[in-house]
Amino acid sequence: MEYKARTFELPEDINGLSKAQIDVHIGLYNGYVNHVNHLHQQLTKLATADSGEDFSYSISELRRRLGFEWNGMRLHEYYFEALVGGDQTLMADSGLYQAFTKQYGGFSKWMEIFKKVNARGPGWSILYYDTQSEQFLNAWVAEHEIGQLAGLPVILALDHWEHAFMVDYKPAEKAEYIDAYLAAINWHTISNRFDNAAQ
Questions:
Q1: Within this chain, do residues 39 and 119 fall inside the same structural domain, yes or no?
Q2: What is the pTM (predicted TM-score) of this model?
């Protein structure tokens, strides 16, 4: 099994996010993909080893590490995919807009809350949708392998780790980076994710 790093057709000019910043961040994403493949190779070798030794401890440690690398790979795919096609407004007649309005009283009210999910510290702000309760959940995930909400589709993933903004912004300017990223999103893509999750 081998995973290939995805390529993302990003706009040439993203307001508030330089090409240098994007290139550094894409490089980090590629590293996650490489590490996922490396760990799969190591796990396969250990699982098929015919030496009579017990590799269960090594396998369990590699599996734990795989969770970090895998989630890092996938969360970055959500992150970059949201920028493909350039900034697009969320349409008021979309299911996503209407669901935000039903739960939060409006899209802008949800946005205010989402921006505060991770006001301090590194990690990810993730918007999940729980299909059983038909409710959104805004979550902070500090480490990729910890704090994920099992079984819930990811609607939006916003990277707060310094690698996502330090080329363009100082740590104290993280709020400006958040504004820039959210303004650059193709909300048509995010709306499609919601529609698929809500079916």
A1: no
A2: 0.90
Q: Look up the domain containing 32 and give its range.
A: 19-81
Please check whether residue 192 is in contact with residue 93, taking contact to mean a CB–CB distance below 8 angstroms: no
Q: Give the tokens for residue 42.
A: 């190591």
pLDDT at residue number 144? 82
- Tokens 């999103």 found at: 185
DSSP 127: E
Using an 8 Å Cβ cutoff, are 2 and 50 in contact? no
SS3 182: helix
Distance of CA 77 to the CA centre of its chain: 6
Give residue 174's identity as a one-letter amino acid code: K
Write the CA distances from 146 to 15, 71, 123, 150, integer angstroms: 32, 10, 10, 11
In this structure, the answer to whether residues 54 and 106 fall within a common structural domain is no
* Average pLDDT, integer, range 133-148: 89
